[in-house]
Amino acid sequence: MQQAKEVMKASDGSLLGDPGHTPLSKKEGVKWQRPRLTRQALMRCCLVKWILSSAAPQGSDSSDSELELSTVRHQPEGLDQLQAQTKFTKKELQSLYRGFKNECPTGLVDEDTFKLIYSQFFPQGDATTYAHFLFNAFDADGNGSIRFEDFVMGLSILLRGTVHEKLKWAFNLYDINKDGYITKEVMLAIMKSIYDMMGRHTYPILREDAPMEHVERFFQKMDRNKDGVVTIDEFLETCQKDENIMSSMQLFENVI
């Protein structure tokens, strides 16, 4: 039960950011500032926890830090380029790569690895389907494997992106066909996969009909022209204007 309660707590891995529910009106005009992402804060994110738990000690061979390892089949881009493309510092990228290299010597992550990660962090439920959906969201080019670059760029958005960036990433998660639309059936499938992963011993207790209620409430507000699908514009506009929707999507904070 204690583990379940910890999983349900807000984390820095929010898809929407703002675990404290700051009113949107108070955020307008506020310039994004790079937060200080400590190891403790990073470790609240399942994917980062998995990576950093395998990272070599800070005093290890410095040659690793430049991401040039002859034993790795896929060679990542240079550290400076990744730093420019993400909101991670050079030291954070070094630490993330050490763990990534240790867990994935080939330089690539496959879907089975994602399933293993989430089965370890959510043993009380079935994480298989959710891991499948999440993997596809990270797998930008759809080739069945995730490079270190794709991995850290996705994490950069989820951990440090703006509300707009996180919402676009969330839409991409729901848009499994990549046709620019979210259907009620797909959203329900993803919501069910999250509830299945959280298990029946979570706190508070999750009801059987909760996923359907969640999806019906979303579509009632998002599908403005009532055509049965939600576009990226409808999704962004509705989410950013409706604090209740922003709060209700909090469930994602704890499953990245």
UniProtKB/TrEMBL annotation:
This is Calsenilin isoform X2. It is found in: Cell membrane. Its main location: membrane. PROSITE patterns: EF_HAND_1 (PS00018), EF_HAND_2 (PS50222). One of its GO terms (cellular component) is voltage-gated potassium channel complex. SUPFAM superfamilies: EF-hand. GO terms for biological process: regulation of potassium ion transmembrane transport. It comes from the Eukaryota. Residues 126-161, 162-197, 210-245 form the EF-hand domain. PANTHER family: CALCIUM BINDING PROTEINS, CALSENILIN. The keyword Repeat applies.
